[in-house]
Amino acid sequence: MGPLRMEVTLLCCVVVVLGALPFSSDAQLDPSFYRNTCPSVHSIVREVIRNVSKSDPRMLASLIRLHFHDCFVQGCDASILLNNTDTIVSEQEALPNINSIRGLDVVNQIKTAVENACPGVVSCADILTLAAEISSVLAQGPDWKVPLGRKDSLTANRTLANQNLPAPFFNLTLLKAAFAVQGLNTTDLVALSGAHTFGRAQCSTFVNRLYNFSNTGNPDPTLNTTYLQTLRAVCPNGGGGTNLTNFDPTTPDKFDKNYYSNLQVHKGLLQSDQELFSTIGADTIDIVNRFSSNQTLFFESFKAAMIKMGNIGVLTGSQGEIRKQCNFVNGNSAGLATLATKESSEDGLVSSI
C-alpha cells in the first residue's frame, strides 16, 4: 500500500467513528465525590504509585498513557483493563496496546488497596484518572482536582482501539482528526502530546525515521542530524526494534516543558511529535513556541486538557458498575481467559501519546 493510500485509509478509519462516540458530559462528576464514602482514596492511590515509582520511575509516564489509551476508546470507562473472556474481546490485544501498555498490575495493586479500605465504592475508571494526576505530580508536573464519579464499563471494544488511537507515524492532519473525534481541539492535542516529556519508546515506533523515511531510503529530514546518530546507535538498521530510548534526552523522568524545546531543535522522538513543529505553516508551531517559553502556560493547558479528556464518554449514575476486580465485569470471572501477567517493558509502542 502506497503512503498516500495508507494515509487516506487511516484518515477514513479515524473519521468513520465520528458521531459514534458518547461525548463527554460533565454529568455528575465531582472532585469531592468520595468525600464521605472513601475519603482516603487519593492518599491510597498515591502511596501505591509512589512505592512502585521508586524502583520503576517510568511507571509514572506509563500510567498517564494508560489513562489516555482508555479514554480514546468508548470513553473513560476502564474498558482497557478488561481481559479476554467468553464474551469480551480485550482491548489489551489491539495493535496500539499489545506489547505496549504498562501499569495493569499497578492498577490491580491500587484496586486491592482501595477495596480493603472502601469495598465496592471506587470505580476502576476513577482509579485510572487519579493515577494519571498523581503520576504527573510525582514527576514534578502539574496537579489538578480530578472530577470523580465514573462507573466502569461492561464491555470493551478492540475495533475502536485499533481505529481511535493515533499512531507514531501520523502526520498533523491525522493527529487533528483523531483528537477531533474525541472532542479535543488543537491546543488539547499539543498540550497532551507534552506527556512525552518523560517515559520511553521502543525503536520500532520511530526506526523508519532513521533509515528509510517514507520509503525514500533516507532519514527524516526534520530530524536533528546529531540526534539521528544518537538514535541510530540505539536502534541499528534491521535490529529487533525492542530497544528503548528516552522521549526526552534532557530530563527523561521529569515532567517539564523540555518536550517543546526539543521540538524546536528537531529532537522530537516520534514523527507525530515533530509534526507539531515541523509542519510548514501549521497553527501548532505557535503553541509549541509558547509552551516552550512558558512552563506555567503549558501546565495550565495540560491540566485543562486532562480534565477535558477525562470527561469523554463517562458512565455515571445507573450506568455501568463498580467492578470488584478491574480485569473483568462483576459475575463474569467464570471462563476468564487471563492475559499474560508479564508487564511490557515499552511505553507507548503504537500510540503517539
From TrEMBL:
Residue(s) at site: Transition state stabilizer: R65
GO cellular component: extracellular region
CDD domains from the UniProt entry: secretory_peroxidase
Signal peptide span: 1-27
Keyword entries, A-Z: Calcium, Disulfide bond, Glycoprotein, Heme, Hydrogen peroxide, Iron, Metal-binding, Oxidoreductase, Peroxidase, Secreted, Signal
Major subcellular site: secreted
Binding of substrate, residues: P166
Keyword Transport: no
Catalytic residues (UniProt): H69
Pfam hit, one: peroxidase
Principal EC category: oxidoreductase
Enzyme Commission number, as recorded: 1.11.1.7
Binding residues for Ca(2+) 2: T197, D248, T251, D256
Cofactor field: Ca(2+); heme b
All residue ranges annotated as the Plant heme peroxidase family profile domain in the record: 28-330
Subcellular location: Secreted
Disulphide bridges, residue numbers: C38-C118, C71-C76, C124-C326, C203-C235
Chain positions recorded as Ca(2+) 1 binding sites: D70, V73, G75, D77, S79, E91
One BP annotation, GO: hydrogen peroxide catabolic process
GO MF annotations, alphabetized: heme binding; lactoperoxidase activity; metal ion binding
Residues that, per the record, bind heme b: H196
Role this protein plays: Removal of H(2)O(2), oxidation of toxic reductants, biosynthesis and degradation of lignin, suberization, auxin catabolism, response to environmental stresses such as wounding, pathogen attack and oxidative stress. These functions might be dependent on each isozyme/isoform in each plant tissue.
Family from the record: Belongs to the peroxidase family. Classical plant (class III) peroxidase subfamily.
Name of the protein described by the UniProt record: Peroxidase
UniProt organism field: Phaseolus vulgaris
